[in-house]
Amino acid sequence: MRLRNKPWAQKLVQEHPEAILNQPDPEKKIDWKSRFDDFSKPLAIEIGSGKGQFITTLAKNHPEMNFIGIELQTTAAGMILRTKLEEGIDNLQLMCADAANIAMFLPENSADIIYLNFSDPWPKTRHEKRRLTYKSFLREYQTVLKDDGHLEFKTDNQGLFEYSLVSMNNYGMKFDFLSLDLHHNKSEIAQNNVETEYEHKFAAKGNPIYCLHASFK
User: pTM for this one?
Assistant: First the structure.
């Protein structure tokens, strides 16, 4: 969902290059070690961070980890950046960029978890290649994730969930967790769930939240 343009967000992004990479050149290597106090900590990446409720909550709750939030919209990235700065979240870096190039922005085998939360479903068949669970994106994730890393995916869109199951299965991924109604699931994973803004809104309307965890090994 595209947000209304907020001029302050663009200005904030430009003023804080130490906290956010704004449309980085995929041909230039990013020195991630210089952007974190300790880049050896486990790394989690969220692709499509929206307004940032999910990624900022996780980063605050898990100081023993590093987090990278990737968001294409500058306005949304600016909102996350404002929260990061106001709350002093030092273990979170942001990047305003297209996730289609994620393997060019990050070292191979560097991430422990990749989160895909409420991605645009791109329902038209001609837009299949834009879906974040299309095989070309899965290839990028596989490159970035460690051998024992995994992908966590949530959506309220049944069609996208079904498509993603097929796409990941065809790619040879292994499913470690599946739920057709996460908020009524009794598992430990469900009990420890951190909601996104959209998730809270959709669940309040009674919509089921679909969830899966999958790995490449």
Answer: 0.95
